[in-house]
């Protein structure tokens, strides 16, 4: 089973021609409230792909909380360990302009109350976990407690370093697989240049060594429409660097693509797949997620991915 410990947010999205400047008011041309939050998205993505997923988190006693619980449960996620807090449900207020550029403000709300005590209260599910999936939308001490519990249970600890924040070395040491986009990778490595799509293996080799130098042995770097790269210092020498070709799709909404990728990696690792195979599968799942509008509602199931694999 997969245990996802982290955030649930209501995404409040307003669409506009252009984003307002500070102090300016602009007219919008549409508004939507959707289930979101990195951890909830990752849990739904993994469950849609057939994994047994338990979500540990917190929501408020309000309509956004109800929406989030019903979306996750509707996708098959076990939400028994999502606590109802006295704070309001977390929200992300998102403005999207005509070119797809966005501005996002997140208010943690109930997510900010998630603590090591919640991790301890979920010991029954964490004990049987094959994979524990974490992100940085809840407090570092909570993430650290969950990583430790996953490690102690013999689970593979997957950390999505997003939204980027500095992490204690202890958390890096407890992480079995780090998942980052190019931006987060470069922030983690200290404003290093992350190779572009025309990079050769030597450029990536240098990046692999820098991650290893920071205590991260297995890293997946996602590159949007350019695919992804597996950096695995623990693999055989000819497998330490694997570049996953992009899956060509007609993308209409890339929101939550990274979460679809993370959830799919977790699902495949829990099913016993090797890291590079999990990444190849995830790149198809994430590409399919961009072909439909929305986040959780756009995530593919196992048959959708298998159809692409067979084509
Ligand atoms: P994030 O959403 O966290 O910024 P990326 O933009 O790197 O992360 O996207 C995550 C993954 O989603 C990519 O590695 C890729 O597999 C898939 N993806 C994203 N955008 C596209 C796209 N336009 N076409 C195909 N796949 C995409």
Quick recap of the structure?
This protein is an alpha/beta fold and 311 residues long.
Oligomer: single chain
Strand coverage percent: 25-35%
- What's the overall average pLDDT, rounded? 94
Amount of helix? 25-40%
Termini separation (Å)? 29 Å
Task: Give an account of the 3D structure.
A nine-stranded mixed β-sheet has the order 5-4-1-8-9-10-11-12-13, sandwiched between helices. Strands 3-2-6-7 form a four-stranded mixed β-sheet. By secondary structure, the protein is an alpha/beta fold. It is globular, with a radius of gyration of 19 Å. It is built from eleven helices and 13 strands. Helices cover 35% and strands 25% of the residues. It has one domain: Ribokinase (UDP-N-acetylmuramoyl-L-alanine:D-glutamate ligase, 3-Layer(aba) Sandwich), CATH 3.40.1190.20. 50% of the residues are buried. A hairpin with a 5-residue loop joins strand 6 (90-96) and strand 7. The structure holds adenosine-5'-diphosphate. Residues 181, 222-225, 227-228, 246-247, 249, 251, 254, 257-258, 261, 283, 286-287, 290 line the site of adenosine-5'-diphosphate.
């Amino acid at each position: 089973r997969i245990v996802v410990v982290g955030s649930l947010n209501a995404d409040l999205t307003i669409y506009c021609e252009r984003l307002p400047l500070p102090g300016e008011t602009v007219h919008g041309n549409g508004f939507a409230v959707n289930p979101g939050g990195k951890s909830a998205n990752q849990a739904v993505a993994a469950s849609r792909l057939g994994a047994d997923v338990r979500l540990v988190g917190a929501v408020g006693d309000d309509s956004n909380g109800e929406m989030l619980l019903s979306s996750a449960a509707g996708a098959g996620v076990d939400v028994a360990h999502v606590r109802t807090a006295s704070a309001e449900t977390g929200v992300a207020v998102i403005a999207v302009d005509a070119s797809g550029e966005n501005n996002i403000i997140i208010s943690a709300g109930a997510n900010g109350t998630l603590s090591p005590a919640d991790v301890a209260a979920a010991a029954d599910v964490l004990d049987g976990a094959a994979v524990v999936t974490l992100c940085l939308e809840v407090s570092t001490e909570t993430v650290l407690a969950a990583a430790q519990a996953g490690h102690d249970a013999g689970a593979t600890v997957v950390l999505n370093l997003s939204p980027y924040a500095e992490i204690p070395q202890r958390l890096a040491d407890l992480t079995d697989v780090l998942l980052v986009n190019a931006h987060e990778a470069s922030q983690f490595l200290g404003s290093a240049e992350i190779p572009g799509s025309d990079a050769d293996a030597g450029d990536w080799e240098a990046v692999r060594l820098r991650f290893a130098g920071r205590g991260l042995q297995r890293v997946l770097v996602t590159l949007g429409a350019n695919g992804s790269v597996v950096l695995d210092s623990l693999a055989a020498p000819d497998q330490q660097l694997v570049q996953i070709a992009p899956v060509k799709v007609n993308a209409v909404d890339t929101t939550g693509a990274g979460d679809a990728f993370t959830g799919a990696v977790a699902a495949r690792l829990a099913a016993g797949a090797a890291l590079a195979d999990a990444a190849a599968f995830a790149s198809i799942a994430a590409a399919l997620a961009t072909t439909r509008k929305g986040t959780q509602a756009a995530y593919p199931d196992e048959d959708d991915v298998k159809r692409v694999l067979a084509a």
